[in-house]
Write a structure and sequence with these properties.
This protein is α/β, with parallel strands linked by helices and about 325 residues long. It is about 45% helix and about 15% strand. The strands form 2 sheets. It has a 6-stranded mixed β-sheet with strand order 1-2-10-7-8-9, with helices on both faces. Helix 2 packs across helix 3, helix 2 packs across helix 6 and helix 6 packs across helix 7. The termini are far apart. It binds pyridoxal-5'-phosphate.
């Protein structure tokens, strides 16, 4: 499971979408080789390598009940028979497909008010240490240099694909949440020294905060490999399509999801990938981008597609 060679490459496929005579391609990170893949699986694979290196014997992390990150961490921990502790804000703890799967994986979930999450994490870590364990903490969403590195690797895959096929992507779009995925792609680009445009479509955060976090992640990673810092002009974090913030969506998003599902047979969700793909199309229309090769990263989250199946079926 999750050995270097098998997990590091996901396919890129052409979509039927042809808005403004652009050609659209999709990097299928939802097919990353662990359960239903996704960027959280790509990041977690590297975190678990670090856990092994540091000889830790249990893992602690944090996220809502709909968190893909928590589900992936609980899954890999269970596969390794490693105890897993998850802190979940009470305000975001209604049952979802991800939270039911976390239950199957036998993770211990501790609920507490959002304002007390930090304290709860410290308490769990302290308890585990007192019991003689060597716990490992994974930041929410797989944030941090290790998570960033996962998408430096993804960028290298994109580069290899271009070299092999002769297809060059003018734009890379993705849905940006905490921005770690975007930061990794930007670092990959800085390392490879090419100059296409990477656009993160925010699903929740507004600027300047959202873009600032991406910039901090980029510079933190560049520090770790001894490269020079960059400035905010290297960061395209677009907050025009967040609607009412995290989890909010409209009928156009449902329509976009339905189109891709029917035409390409690919599931997307209303919180991340479907919202980002819709935002990308709006951005392309507004900026009048035509005749380009465009790559969108499918960052996974397929359980959320099933959570919203009811709304999709009702949408006409
Ligand atoms: C977490 C998540 C994102 C956002 O990734 P970040 O690295 O936090 O920006 C995008 N898509 C899906 C499906 C996710 O689960």
């Amino acid at each position: 499971m999750l050995n270097q060679k098998s997990y590091r490459t996901t396919p890129i496929q052409k979509l039927y979408e042809n808005l403004n005579d652009n050609l659209f391609y999709l990097k299928r990170d939802d097919l990353f080789s662990f359960f239903l893949g996704g960027n959280k699986a790509r990041k977690a694979a590297l975190f678990f390598e670090d856990i092994k290196k540091k000889n830790c014997d249990c893992v602690v992390s944090y996220g809502s009940s709909s968190s893909n990150h928590c589900r992936v961490v609980a899954n890999i921990a269970a596969a390794k028979s490693m105890p897993c502790y998850l802190i979940t804000p009470t305000e975001a703890s209604k049952p979802t497909i991800n939270s039911k799967m976390v239950q199957i994986f036998g993770a211990t979930v501790r609920k507490c008010p959002t304002t007390e999450v930090e304290k709860a994490i410290e308490t769990v870590l302290a308890e585990l240490k007192k019991q003689g364990h060597n716990p490992y903490f994974i930041p929410g969403g797989g944030h941090g240099d290790i998570g960033t590195r996962a998408y430096v690797y993804a960028y290298e895959e994109i580069n290899n694909y271009e070299r092999k096929t002769g297809i060059y992507f003018d734009y890379i779009f993705l849905t940006s949440g905490t921005g770690t995925t975007q930061a990794g792609l930007i670092c990959g680009q800085l390392i490879c020294n090419d100059n296409r445009t990477i656009v993160g479509i925010s699903n929740a955060r507004k600027n300047p905060y959202g873009g600032q976090v991406v910039l901090e992640s980029v510079n933190s990673y560049l520090d770790s490999i001894g490269k020079k810092h960059v400035t905010s002009k290297n960061i395209n974090f677009v907050d025009d399509y967040v609607l009412g913030g995290y989890g909010s969506y409209n009928n156009d998003i449902l329509q976009t999801i339905k189109e891709i599902l029917i035409r390409d047979g690919i599931p997307m969700d209303t919180t991340y990938t479907g919202k980002g793909f819709w935002g990308m199309k709006e951005y392309i229309k507004e900026k009048q981008i035509t005749g380009k090769n465009i790559l969108f990263i499918h960052t996974g989250g397929t359980p959320l597609f099933f959570d919203s199946l009811g709304e999709l079926a009702d949408e006409t």
